[in-house]
Design goal:
Distance between the termini: 144 Å
Shape: rod-shaped
Strand content: 15-25%
Radius of gyration: 41 Å
Number of domains: 1
Helix content: 25-40%
Oligomer: single chain
Largest sheet: 4 strands, antiparallel
Structural class: alpha+beta
């Protein structure tokens, strides 16, 4: 006699009379999750747009500051190139958009600066004064103080240069 395994016996399930709740998670997002995600995305977008706007404003202000310094240096060089007696002719106020470039050699008039300078105005003052040099036994030098200020569109001084030019020894 050989030992053979016994055939499997069928298992019967008892009848279920109660409903079972499925513990499987639904696919996709719930309304609350979608709402929270959209609020987070909106906050990130608002922060990014504000930083871009602030960066753009700072870049514009820096550009105007650089142009203002260039305009002040151009005017100062024009004044210093003039003879001591005629340098007062460059004193005065240049209105917004009316800034003039240095006079070209051989020209009789000064050309306007390019359109990039159109938002700026410039004030040049030249005052006769004496400077006392204390380190040289209070030696006094007669001359002129040159003050060039460039004003931006909001009325704030963006650049200011001050120089002193002593009287020429021949005058």
């Amino acid at each position: 006699m050989t030992n053979q395994p016994a055939p499997p016996t069928p298992v019967t399930k008892p009848e279920q009379t109660t409903w079972q709740v499925s513990m499987r998670r639904p696919r996709g997002f719930t309304l609350l999750e979608a709402l929270i995600a959209s609020i987070i995305v909106a906050m990130v977008a608002a922060t990014a747009s504000m930083s871009v706007a602030v960066g753009s404003s700072i870049e514009q202000q820096n550009r105007l500051s650089v142009l203002a310094m260039q305009a002040a240096e151009l005017q100062m060089s024009s004044v210093l190139e003039q003879s001591y007696e005629t340098m007062n002719t460059l004193a005065g106020t240049e209105a917004v958009g009316q800034l003039l470039a240095p006079q070209r050699p051989g020209a009789t008039t000064r050309e306007p600066l390019p359109a990039a300078f159109s938002e700026l105005s410039r004030v040049t003052t030249i005052v006769t004064e004496n400077r006392t040099l204390t380190q040289y036994n209070n030696y006094t030098v007669s001359g002129k103080r040159i003050d060039v200020s460039v004003i931006g569109p909001d009325g704030i001084t963006l650049a200011r240069l001050v120089r002193f030019r002593g009287m020429d020894p021949s005058t």
